[in-house]
Amino acid sequence: MFGRGSFRFRPLTWILAGIFTLLLGVMALGCFWFSAPPYHGPASGHFDGKQFHNLVATEHGRFFGFLKWIWTREPGLWLPLREAPSGAPPPPERVEGAVLRVTFVGHSTVLIQTGGLNILTDPVWSERIGPVSWAGPKRHVTPGVKFEDLPPIDVVLISHDHYDHMDLPTLKELEERFHPAFFTGLGNRKMLKDAGLSRVHEMDWWDSSKMGGGVSVTFVPSQHFSSRSYCDRDRTLWGGFVVGSEDGPIYFASDTGMGPHFDMIKERFGAPRLAFLPIAAFLPRWFMGRVHLSPEDAVDVHKMLGAGMSIPVHFGTFRLGDDGQYEAVERLSNALIEREIRNFRILKPGEGMDIP
Fold first, then answer.
1. Fewer CB within 10 Å, N side or C side of the chain?
2. d(CA 8, CA 15)
3. Within 10 A of 211 (CB to CB), how many other CB atoms are there?
């Protein structure tokens, strides 16, 4: 009935089947252990009762697109770990009144000091970013400010749940040392509470909260996504922040692609006194372009916002795309020269400046 060899053993077939089964098992375990708790709440214009959505629909990062990128990627050059430039003094303990002092720590971590408040954005001091301490992208430059040199931290802004923005080991250390207030998007409170953080405030897009000293914080839209594993895509909300004061808004865009939210933010808050704009990871554009600005995009956004000053973030620390370690800064520098823009300042890790 069956021809000879119908059940012939084929080693390559079994090997491939074994690898596929192993991958499925690893993915299932990763989903079980590392997925973010899903948000449960009323539906809205950007939440369908199960998943959150961008203002402009995007399919970035779906599984087969990710596999295509991994299979075809052409990564740029990154150097081994190096020390951040030394010589800069530690940040002051407090900055009072209308004075605005900012210090670039690295990646998307910035210390903002104004109105007597010390605010950290997306703090990451870990050597690697991932679900466990021994896996995930590793740091290529040390933090520009040593953790022990931080002034008292009052407020921590967490834009979304990606490991390079929501670094639980760092957040736990901040909780233990400073007991700050943490502000983040809908759905993230349970995970942060389970990690031991006590003062966690969830926010929907356009929600605002006063922080004292005439300073407020508003959670604003961005064009991005969220996930901690393969199975929790867009179950928590992502976004940026606007820190408001009488002397002008400070805009922290976090991770974002191009979208209508920039015009909406300017319409609501006016031109920012200062904007922190991401410039990487931006290659390959077919994969990264929907959710990450390129350096040239960041210049366009700077002009669109009419920012008094802009500072780039999200570059040169963790290898997240195919762009090289210094490629984003080089392309940004060239774009600023070509367009004769002088109020877009690139800071080195640890470098601080006073904003007019």
1. N
2. 15
3. 18
Answering whether pTM is above 0.70, one says yes
Residues 6 or more apart in contact with residue 76 via CB below 8 angstroms: 283, 322, 323, 324, 325, 327
* Cβ proximity of 258 and 291 under 8 Å: no
Q: What is the fold, at CATH topology level, of the domain defined by 100-355? A: Metallo-beta-lactamase; Chain A (3.60.15)
Q: In angstroms, rounded to a whole number, what is the distance separating the alpha carbons of residues 58 and 24?
A: 26
Whether 115 and 97 have beta carbons less than 8 Å apart is answered as yes
Q: How far is CA 97 from CA 208, 231, 247, 279, in A?
A: 21, 46, 10, 31
Calpha distance 167→152 (Å, rounded) = 19
